[in-house]
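Hi W.,

Here's what went into the run:
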Amino acid sequence: MLMTELPHLETEAEFNKTIEENENVMVCCGRMGPMCVPVYESMEELEDEYPHVKFVDMDFDIPSAHVIRNLPECAGFMGLPFTVYYKNGKVVKATSSLQSMDQITEILDEEFAK
Amino acid sequence: MNENMFDVIILGGGAAGLTAGIYTSRAKLKTLILNEGVVGGQMVLTDEIANYPGVENIGGFQLARIMKKQAKTFGCTIKSNIKITRMELDGALKTIEVNNKTNYSAKSVILTSGGRARNLNVPGEKEFQGSGISYCATCDGDFFQDKEIIVVGGGNSALEEAVSLTKYASKVTIVHEFDHFQAYPSAVEEAKKNEKIHFIMESTIAAFKGDAALKTAVIRHIPSGKKSDMPIDGVFIFIGYVPNTESFKGLVKMNERLEIITDEDRQTNLDGVFAAGDCIAKRWRQVSTAVADGTIAALSAAEYIAKQE
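Here's what came out:
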């Protein structure tokens, strides 16, 4: 159970609905670990600044998280969290392990420019 | 009062900064916490805190959330994920410029910028973070089931995490720069009696190599300078912490380790400027010591302001 203030995706259906209904989606799939928490915190901080992006998280250990765990873009990832950026339902970027606020905003600005 | 004018500005939102914010806000001093990273500092990087008095067991993230809420409840303003672009700390009125555009002023400033995990700073380290290089055994240990890994370091964290990683890895090699460990004897003994753990002493990592994932660590034997390639699946780095004080260079007095020097009231060499937590020169770095430092700095700042008025 993730203890963040972000919407949690708990089922595959919720995940599919989210990436279908939102043009820009950032999904952080992780645990409540030290490398993951700063990414959730950054996402919470960025929600107001990037209203055109849907920020969500997903517990890495729930069965439906296979939608992230098994992505070809995440093959070879060996560090949590797996953070995946979707545009119009397609993966445009994926990162592994801790990302700083600057690294995240750089990706958001590049991939989800207004 | 100008909305950007405060009684106290606290630079850093970890345990020391949040505690200072709780105390100064509760003392009815208009307080602003400016935090360049994530609120909670290194607390949020701690999976579980079991030695904070009064709380049996709590996630670092949860404890940070509670402290943040407490500070806000008392009226403290918190701005996080900002960039401090200029500081004027001498003089009666201190000024902090944020994001190259907004100036905040205060009668007193408390520096609580904390610390961060030390990196090796060798070629390949950044490139393979998340694809073989990790700084958190609890987070990433299970990606290395039946794999061969290296743990870099010789302190308590390195040895304890090496032992915990043997739950997953088939072989753990500890690479340490000295011929002895700094860890407690009990941690050394536990690591030495674990059959999966091997040791390469007086050595360091010179570089990491691979393709999409890490494949090789280049190990340098320090006395001879000889380098050798070691095929490896993963590397965990636990080589201590450094203070986040680079931006205070030339502004306040620091020691050779870039730790801010304070007196027992947490006063720096500048009037009205105090410092607390992991960024100051001290021996023990715990949440409880950061909280104590933050309290002392806040009370000292309050006293300083009262004397000026």
